[in-house]
Write a structure and sequence with these properties.
- This protein has about 400 residues and is of the alpha+beta class.
- Helix content is about 15%, strand content about 30%.
- The strands form four sheets. Strands 2, 3, 5, 11, 12, 13 and 15 form a seven-stranded mixed beta sheet that branches. Strands 1-4-17-6-14-18 form a six-stranded mixed beta sheet, with no helix packed on it. It has a five-stranded antiparallel beta sheet with strand order 10-9-8-7-16.
- Strand 12 (about 215-220) and strand 13 form a beta hairpin.
- Helix 5 (about 325-340) crosses helix 6 (about 345-355).
Length: about 400
Amino acid sequence: MKTIVKLDLDKKPWEQDGQIHNRWHPDIPMISMVKPGEEFRVECMDWTGGQIGNNDSADDIKNVELEQVHYLSGPIGVEGAEPGDLMVVDILDVGTFEESQWGFNALFARENGGGFLTDHFPEARKSIWDFHGIYTTSRHVPNVKFAGIMHPGLIGCLPSKDMLEKWNKREGDLIATDPNAVPPLACPPTEQAAVMGKMKGDAAAAAAKEGARTVPPREHGGNCDIKNLTKGSRVYFPVYVKDGGLSMGDLHFSQGDGEITFCGAIEMAGYLDIKVNLIKGGVKKYGINNPLFQPSVVEPKYSNYLIFEGISVDEQGKQHYLDVNVAYKQACLNAIEYMKKFGYTGEQALSILGTAPVEGHISGIVDIPNACATLWLPTEIFDFDMLPNADGPVEFVTPGTDMSKTSS
């Protein structure tokens, strides 16, 4: 299998011979062309481009430059791809680099990205996870071990000019409703730290001013963070520009549903083995607005779960109407409070929910006024019995252990 994106992890993203970009724009040139039916390997940096170190300080998390992210490998063109086609992408394998057998998880500072539970955990924290084949453990989060579902957090095709304009318009309108929100409501285009692949000079500068940031998922796929999108899965992407322009990155060793710590997975550098095909005119044939995917037969299998319920009543007791976001937040907070009874700090418990293969479910959205969301925590990942019993919880976690903090 040929490698069409070969990276040097000792170099910066902008030093990778134009193989990396961190904005979505229709004019970014293809770095390589492949034929339908072809198989190839793509190497990927971690989403920050190497800003985070394998150490015991969260200073790099506090100070990470989010204008840089995400760093994507591509775009890769598929011969014959035209707007309106479906690009069929088979993920044949996902792997780690031998020289980089670790990943990181982080809670971002409220003033620099925040996260799903930033009101409760506003300070930067980091946990390092070591890889042992398919398993992972962390010196910062003791007493847990689990198998990962390695997957690309971010994969998709280039947008058309019309689609890019639509994205920028609607996200700009949202920002205008509260331009000083912390964290911000959306991430507008910015030239700062933009890497535009093989585009150079004035053309690159002009494209950076309107290129869409890679933070949210959109109609083309993008940063969907679907943990089951692992080796053996297939994705059907709408094509918007000639040749398609497939890009990918933000590899995860493991992740819980929702990626709730924002940097919510175990982030890593690694590679993807890909096969591509085309369904001509597939968008119209199947009425496609967003990508479809078939999950893999490969995934960690856990049989015992403790399921935490949340409803759409927030921490202050305010009633919300069928709000699944509020309900899932409550399910997560309930799980965190439960794990704290066994000696985990709140930050460690949150890191477990972001990294372990927990499942999130919308369990009820019709029973007014409360939506019901559930979080399924696999109990087998713990090396102690954490089920309720008449004697009450025992603190198994060594007192004083915690995730890494900032120096200030």
